[in-house]
Amino acid sequence: MNPIAMARARGPAQNSGPTIQDYLNRPRPTWEEVKEQLEKKKKGSRALAEFEEKMNENWRKELEKHREKLMGGNESSSKKKEKKKKEKKKSNRVSKIFSFLSFFPLGLFLFVI
C-alpha cells in the first residue's frame, strides 16, 4: 500500500487549467503597443502625482493653522496656570504668616504697627 506507487498506477493527474504551452502561445502585444501603454501609465501617474501634491499642500496649510491655534491656546493657558500658581503661593504665604501670628497676640500687634 505505497501511496506513491498507487498514484503512478493511476496515471498522470488531469489538469483543469491552461498548460504551459497554452500560456506561452497566448497573444502578446507588439513593442509599439507596449510603448503606448507605458506612456499612458506615465501620464496617469503624473496627474495622480499632481493631485497628491496639491492635497499635501492643502493638508500642510491646514496643519499649520491648527498648530498655530494650539500653540496660541497653550501659551495663554500656560500663562494662566502660572498666574494661578503665583496667586496660590501669595495667598499661602499670607495665610501662613497670619496663622503663625495668631498664636502670638502681641506678634500681630507688632506686625500691624
Provide an overview of this structure.
- Belongs to the FAM133 family.
- There is one protein chain.
- The chain is 81% helix and 0% strand.
- With 113 residues, the protein is mostly helical.
- The termini are far apart.
Q: Give the number of DSSP strands.
A: 0
What characterizes the major β-sheet? none
Distance between the termini: 117 Å
Report the sheet-strand fraction.
under 5%
Number of helices, counting only DSSP H or I runs of 4 residues or more: 4
Structural class: mainly alpha
Run of helices and strands: HHHH
Report Rg.
42 Å
Helix content: over 70%
In short:
The protein has 113 residues and is mostly helical. 81% of the residues lie in helices and 0% in strands.
What labels would you give this structure?
4 helices; 81% helix; 113 residues; mainly alpha
